[in-house]
Write a structure and sequence with these properties.
There is one protein chain. The chain has 276 residues and is α/β, with parallel strands linked by helices. It has one domain: L-arginine/glycine Amidinotransferase, Chain A (5-stranded Propeller). The protein is built from six helices and 15 strands. A hairpin with a 2-residue loop joins strand 3 and strand 4. The longest helix is centred in the N-terminal third of the chain and has 17 residues, at 30-46.
Length: 276
């Protein structure tokens, strides 16, 4: 998740739908929503990624968060089943986008499994971390592990806390974002102890995020290559920590497309290819 990002899929946000009641957003400015998303795509291109853009899906307000309907692996995509009612149809739309782009599909989850892509973090090509949360259940983890077992990939799960309950979103990537092969950004108060111990065992150090900035996507950071990241603007504390450590930080204005929907730059992107 930190190797150079060479191809990425995003989806144009819809302006049609009930953001508050169905998506649990804070009501966004829909004009700004489109402009912010466009600026993110332009930033990704300027940083060397090929950006494929899927069409908007009216009524599916969360579909802009392209990281969640699938897990991209070195062996093809795994299409997921989503627990949030408004998102249940997204994987089928995602399949159409992948097939149109010629992206191979490794498999898909079946009932009673469900999972969100935001609950996964690749540490390296052979190590996948998964959060057991209200969006990813044990059967989802079991099926993902079975799909990846033939390739010798180790799938390690960590229980996430209750936090604000089933209606709120708390993914593994809400508390952990890798930014290089040996560095990450972590929101410690919600991070599982076993996860922190695992990071230490792998020689991965981290920068801590405050509660205030966790709530404005300060812990959801997209690495476009080692030590080069995209961060939602409005998080000066973690921005300063990263810059002082020599990390190259690129900001994008995400008040509407990121913060009001509880999804940072990683959530808005589906990496299709990272170079080795």
């Amino acid at each position: 998740m930190v190797s150079p990002l060479t191809r990425v899929l995003v989806r144009t946000p819809t302006t049609v739908g009930n953001f508050v009641e169905d998506g649990f957003w804070r009501q966004p400015d829909t004009n700004a929503l489109l402009e912010e998303h466009k600026s993110l795509a332009q930033l990704l291109e300027s940083l060397g990624a090929q950006v494929d853009i899927a069409e908007s899906l009216d009524g599916l307000v969360d579909s802009v968060y392209m990281h969640d309907p699938m897990i991209m692996t070195p062996h093809g995509a795994i299409l997921l089943r989503m627990a949030k009612p408004i998102r249940m149809d997204e994987p089928a739309h995602f399949r159409k986008s992948l097939e149109a782009l010629g992206v191979p599909i490794l498999g898909e989850l079946t009932n009673p499994a469900f999972a969100d892509g935001g609950d996964k973090v690749w540490i390296d090509e052979k190590t996948l971390l998964i959060g057991h949360s209200y969006r990813t259940n044990n059967e989802g983890i079991v099926q993902i592990r079975e799909l990846l077992a033939p390739f010798g990939i180790d799938v390690i799960s960590f229980d996430l806390p209750h936090y604000e309950g089933p209606g709120a979103v708390l993914h593994l990537m809400s508390v952990l974002s890798p930014i290089s092969y040996d560095k990450a950004v972590v929101y410690e108060p919600l991070a599982p102890v076993r996860l922190l111990e695992f990071l230490k065992s792998r020689g991965i150090s981290w920068f801590t995020v405050s509660e205030k900035e966790m709530l404005t996507q300060g812990s959801n950071i997209l690495a476009v290559k080692p030590n080069v990241v995209i961060l939602a603007a409005g998080n000066p504390e973690i921005e300063s920590k990263l810059r002082e450590a020599g990390i190259e930080v690129h900001l994008f204005a995400g008040e509407n497309v990121a913060v009001k929907g509880d999804g940072g730059p990683t959530c808005l992107t589906a990496p299709l290819l990272r170079s080795r």
